[in-house]
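Bumping with the actual sequence this time:
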Amino acid sequence: MRVQIDGAAGGFAPGRSGSLTTGPWSRDADDRPTALSAAVLLDNTLAKSVHAAAPDLDWIVTTELQLNFTRPLPVDGTVLDAWTQATSVDGLGGASRGTLLDAEGTEYAHATGWFQAVAENSEEALDHYERQAALPLGPETESPFPALLGLRVAEPRREERPAVTEDFRPGVDFGALDVLKNPHGATHGGALSMMAGLAAQQALPDRTGYDLQSLQVRFLRPASGAIATWTRVRHAGRSLRIVEVELFSGEHRATAAGQRGEGAGVGHRNETKPFVQATATFRTAR
């Protein structure tokens, strides 16, 4: 995602804590510009601000991330800066907020994050993370972000309005990629947020007429390996769409389907606990 993480301001003072260079990775599965690729930067920089305000919190994980998008990102190599600050900290964790801006002060996103203190990380997981971060950026990284997340199948676009559903339905799947692991050895919260946003988008057959307005992500437990999604359309108005998403183990869904002789995209959502629950809101595209 061409993310650079800097040091955050000490205490509760706001400061520039990182940057994102836009490019093809700022496009979605329909090749449209999107702000969703900023999730990795915002997750990291919000956590940095909590660390700066409470240095004794050696290790923290994200428990909730709220992203509000004011406009899609440019895809022309523009550098966007994250300005973040801690809003509260205690011995159990803390919260922070931030804004994503370009050099002229145009706002692209606002974010709030909640973080929880956890036990010290394993040296093996940290070493793997640092080795992955040091790898050079090859031509395969010059791709829309769904490919970088290991998106397996995107449904063909249809033009009808989506049906509001009472139950969750199988959504898109993502492959297991080592490059998506965080220093704890689990899948990065920013990557999970992008998966949730993309799965919600793919649940809308007429999605090219709508932009992602906000995404609220709740991290229930560490995620790893392949990821399966389940989606439910809660509202499908002419100007506003609301989609709920849950992320599960992809291996579990494939195993459950195989035992029943069903397709790879079939399984029972209630047979395992989700990693993530999220709610996405879309508005009519400009």
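The tokens above came from a reply further down the thread. The longest strand covers residues 79-90.
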